[in-house]
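Changelog note: in this version the structure field was regenerated for every chain. One regenerated record is shown below for reference.
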Amino acid sequence: MPWSRRSALAVLFTAVVLGSSGVTYAAGDAARGKELSYTCLGCHGIESYKNVYPTYSVPELVGQHPEYLAAALKEYRSGERSHGTMHQQAASLSDQDIEDIAQYFAGPVLKPGTTTVGTPPPKVAQLCVACHGTDGVGIMGDYPTLAGQHADYLARALVEYKKGDRKNPVMPSFMTGVTDAEVQEIADYYSRQTPALRTEPRRATILSAQ
């Protein structure tokens, strides 16, 4: 895809995200988010935990941009992203709750690296680097970091964008013409990159120790 088209689409996406609401909220409070996130850790606090029906890895969140995490939670809450469990969990959350949870899970945001692991597949160079970088670290808060994310989760997300199951003004057009094999190449490449996203360990309790 020509650079000019990628740039125009990236600008469009930024304008849509940043201009979508005239309401502003206080910056996320990670300490409060930690208290609110207890049920989240039932899935996101277990290394290599799997979603079932369909089966794929639950995403790793630590190191992700808090802006992206907050946007994703709001999309689950509204139903723009289709996932029964996530919708149920997010439905009762206020915007401030979401900001706090996002800030807690994000932790120290990953910084771009200086090298890559392996050679980027052609589709990565053509479609992905303008927003997600060669090393998978999103270039701004609204673009998710992909480095070290589970490959099967990345592949699932790309397929959902391709099918329109995830609503996004930009990603479906990027996925037009991307084959299943290329989806897997993209997912495998970014899953190997560092610095990598990781899982926030679930907090121990009296019951979990038994």
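Spot check on this record: DSSP finds eleven helices and two strands in the chain. The longest strand covers residues 50-51.
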